Amino acid sequence: MMKSFILTIALSILALTLIKGQNDNYFKLTFVKSTPNAQSNQVLYINFPDVTLWGWIEVTITGGYNWQRNTGKLTKRFAFIYNAGAYFSQNVEIPTAFGDLAYQWNIGDYELANHRIPIYHLATTGNDITIQVEGVLQHLDCINSIKNNLSISDPVIVPNSMQRQYTSFMQDRVGIGILNPQNTLDVNGTVHAREVKVDLNNWSDFVFKPDYKLKPLKELESYVKENHHLPEIPSEAEIVQNGVNIGVTQKKLLQKIEELTLYTIDQQKQIEELKKQIQELMHK
Predict the structure, then answer these.
(1) Which residue ranges form the domains of the chain, and what is each CATH number?
(2) In DSSP terms, which residues pair with 79 in a beta bridge?
(3) Does the predicted TM-score (pTM) go above 0.70?
(4) Could you tell me which residues come within 8 angstroms of residue 203 by beta carbon, excluding any fewer than 6 positions away?
């Protein structure tokens, strides 16, 4: 009996400790707001108290069905460094943006001058939405101030040109199947796509400019015999070590095709000239 009592007390203390740990520097507030029908440029404002913000905050919107279907989820994540009345910095990303709702709403950036985050209604239909504001901040007094003072305004009319938001990951590097990506996106596996577009600053058509000098074929032959690959094309060892840059490789391959075209044109001219000379000799 005594062991059972002690175990119960221990579990209760552990539960209280966990609850305290979860609630000390974490907050979550939920609001329900409505926008009137047949009105454009509606904006709601999440109003914050002017407190120190060290940490992250997420704003999530969900909806349902009123004048039109408004299902889905839109979330914007903020990383803050703000000393009240002094230094301010924010980084943002959109971890979730799906469904009809993502086309009908836009969550703006934190406006330091007014200590608020605007929520733009991109449609003109009346909608009910649930707005959840949650976060983790370092200062407990700031958490309590937000819990007691954060509010969301009723819709107001503010002309704007805001557009829908798409999911965005603002990390410098993202790895799929790899723990330590070295590039913006590293994928340890197969990438399957219907289309791939690569931006380049220029293309290979400089080969056709009048001042472009083709390498003499004898010189090209010597280079290939010595190096076992074409000039300006990476060797097999370089490809194995560094991989293939698709955009640069396509550009270089086209350059070689265009050079080959010029060689062919020049050879055809020589053939035509030889045929002409042969015809002249045959008629003498």
Answers:
(1) 26-157 (2.60.40), 193-282 (no CATH)
(2) 56, 91
(3) yes
(4) 251, 254
